[in-house]
Design a protein that fits this description.
With 130 residues, the chain is an all-alpha fold. It has a single domain, classed as Four Helix Bundle (Hemerythrin (Met), subunit A), CATH 1.20.120. It is built from 5 helices and no strands.
Length: 130
Amino acid sequence: MAIASPYEQYRTASILTCSPLERVILLYKKSIELIDKAIKEFDSENFVEFSEDIKKSCKIIEYLLSVLDMENGGDIAKNLADIYDFSLYTLTRSNTGKDKDGLIRVRHILAGLLEAWEAIREYEQERING
């Protein structure tokens, strides 16, 4: 078993100890990063890495979908579930069909959602700080 680097240990600890809102933001950023990487790999015709990064991004989105509180989340949770389902479908089709446009579409959606979550974080910080 490989020993994790101090950076990986720090990153893992910071993810595990951050607030749920911060965790969501980190997951969106990582998913977008993986899609950006997949787009570059598509352009360089490195389809093995292209596929792996899409799969990793899908795992993040699947996790985000799995933690939605559908019972208490109302329309927001339902709408997010629909967006996540669409994103998973589009990423999967992009992977099998080698479709860069689908990646760009999902990246745009996730970037918009990330912006919204970051605005919520700012609002919460302003509310706490007075």
